[in-house]
Every structure is written in structure tokens, then in C-alpha cells.
Amino acid sequence: MAYLKDFFWNNSDELWYEEFENFTGMPPVGEDYSPCRTDSETLNSSAVVVVYVVVFLLSLLGNSLVMLVLLCSQVTRSVTDVYLLNLAIADLLFALTLPVWAVTREKGWIFGTPFCKMVSLLKEVNFYSGILLLAGISMDRYLAIVHATHTLTRKRHLVKFICMGIWVVSLILSLPVCLFRKAFTLNGSSLVVCYEFLGEETTQVRLWLRLPSQILGFILPLLVMLFCYGFTLCTLFKAQMGQKHRAMKVIFAVVLVFLLCWLPYNLVLLADTLMRTGGIEETCERRHDIDRALEATEILGFLHSCLNPLIYVFIGQKFRHGLLKILAARGLISKEFLAHHRASSYSSSSTVPSNL
């Protein structure tokens, strides 16, 4: 991700530039590019930095607590717990990069090429692992509820291998960004950027890299989730399985929040790709609107890293109880309060405990 100054030649062949924030990091190259000069302001830089810092703090605290609760649980972790633990790890790793993006927002890239590659890799891996883990959860619920197949879905050692495979696939999908990204100074400027650099072919190659990453890293997992949860919901409604409805609330909430945070960015990115490849007519107004939308929607995607713990706290009965047990063990709350919470939880649920 880079904050760039794009350089163009005007009709008098005099060099000029226009500063704008572009999360896609795709400055125009080649002689045929038609510049669009606009005077509209981008998102307020200081406000965005504040958002980054707040998301970083909330994500660091929230995902650390999720990992603590799941790892310290005396009850055998369910398959879903293993997936959610990996999801928390991915969000926590990404949150650690947010201070870097905050500094970059104000000062440009000052951290050098190795760190550029590492931070970019963490950002990409977080996105791909997040949606692939959610697709894995959807398949687990589909097999357990629709086909009542417990053999595969209840063996934790198999789930560990699936999660390892997801991390490997996420790493492979993220490698192109890592391999081609470097820190360099734009010609005619003192601005240093962290960006894929392939010479004159940079824009074209970046466009081609988008296609497999969007298909394998977003569209296919999204279709898997829609298929699995569609049939799962139909089965639950037909069987009137009230408790399993409650047990699925957290999962549905996690998936919904992920889509609300990342779907807008991917739709805008698709529109940007179509415009750059000629599928949509490019105008100065559309170019500016898409640049602004890319910036705003990726900030929304960044926000996702701190939201899952909030879902667990407000919806997840099992997580709340596990957190309160840890607090009680360290004397931060009374055991009477813990006992009262457990009694009220059981009275508000059926005899079958929720997985979450």
C-alpha cells in the first residue's frame, strides 16, 4: 500500500503532478495515459491516522483476549474454536502493521524495502486467510448440520491440517505482492513509496495479478459460503432446530461483518480493473470517484480486524463465560458474579450448550 504522487505531462510538455491517496498503488505509466486533474480533497489525513490508531488498540486488546480465552479453555476446543483462533491470529498480525500505515500516511514510506515486503505480506495474508477460514467454517457447519457428518468435522487434528493448508494458500496468493514490492523514490520527487515495481509494465502486470487473486481469494470462497450457509439455513428452518439457530448466531455475525467490511472494497476494485482495461469508459469524474472509493473502502476493510472480538462479547455466550472465568481466577471479578452469570446463561438457553 502506498500513498503516491502521480506524475503526468500536460499539453505543453511541462511536468506537473497531482497528489492523491491511492490504496491500490497503481500510478499511471506509459505515454498514452490521459491525466485527470481534480481539485477535490481526499479523506482527512489526521482523521484516518486516528482511525488506524483506534483500530490498532482495539484489535490488539480484543484479539489477544480471544486467543487467551480459547487457549486457556479447560473444555475441549470445538472445530469452530480452532478456526476462530486462527482468525484471531490473522487479525492480530495485521493489527501490528497499522502503526506503520499511520506513520506512512503522514511521512511517506520511511522503513526500507525489507519492511515494505513484510508489512505488505501480512496485510495480504490477513485478507486471504480471513475469508478462507470463514469458508472452512461454513463447510464444517454444512457437513455437520445438512449431512450430519461428524467424523470429519469433529476430528481436531484434521482441522489443524486444514488451517495449515489455508495459511499456505494465503501465503502463495500473497507472494506476488511481496516479491515485486519495494521501497523506491518516484522520479522527480523526494517521495518514497512502498509499491510493486516492474518498470513500464508495472500497471499491466498488476492488473493481471488482480484476476487470480480476486477469483481464488474472494469470489470462490464467497460462493462456497453462500452455498453452504444457504443449505444450512434451509435445514435448520425445516427441522426447527432452535438451539442450533442460537449456536450459529456468532458464525453468521462474523461472516456478515466480514462481507460488510471487505465486499465494498472488492466491488470498487473490480470497477477500477474494468475501467483500466477498457471494460468501463474512463472519465475524469469516474477516475476521481473510484480513487476516493478505494481509499474509503479499504479503511473499512482495516476496521474489520477489531470487530470479531466485539461480536464474541455481545453475542457469544461461551466466550463471555470463558472471559469471566479468567477474570475471576485473577481476582478481577467476584466468584459470586461468575456464578450468577452462569446461572442466567443456562436459564436463557436450552439444555444443549452453544458452541460459541
3D structure, described in words:
The chain is mainly alpha-helical and 356 residues long. The chain folds into two domains: 4-309, Up-down Bundle (Rhopdopsin 7-helix transmembrane proteins), CATH 1.20.1070.10; 316-356. It is built from twelve helices and four strands. The protein has a two-stranded antiparallel ribbon. α1 runs antiparallel to α3 (98-107), α4 (112-146) runs antiparallel to α6 (156-180) and α4 (112-146) packs across α8. It is globular and about 65 Å long. The chain crosses the membrane at residues 49-71, 83-102, 127-146, 158-177, 215-237, 249-268. Interacts with IL8. Interacts with GNAI2. One of its GO terms (cellular component) is external side of plasma membrane. Keywords: Cell membrane, Chemotaxis, Disulfide bond, G-protein coupled receptor, Glycoprotein, Membrane, Receptor, Transducer, Transmembrane, Transmembrane helix.
| Oligomer category | single chain
Low-confidence segments, given as residue ranges, are: 1-34, 349-354
Name the shape in a single word: globular
Strand order within the widest sheet? Answer: 1-2
Strand content: 5-15%
Contiguous helical run count? 12
Q: Span from first to last CA? A: 35 Å
- The total count of strands amounts to 4
Mind telling me the C-alpha Rg?
Answer: 23 Å
Number of domains: 2
CATH level 1 class label of the largest domain: Mainly Alpha
CATH topology of the largest domain: Rhopdopsin 7-helix transmembrane proteins
CATH superfamily placement of the largest domain: Rhodopsin 7-helix transmembrane proteins
Order of secondary-structure elements: EEHHHHHHEEHHHHHH
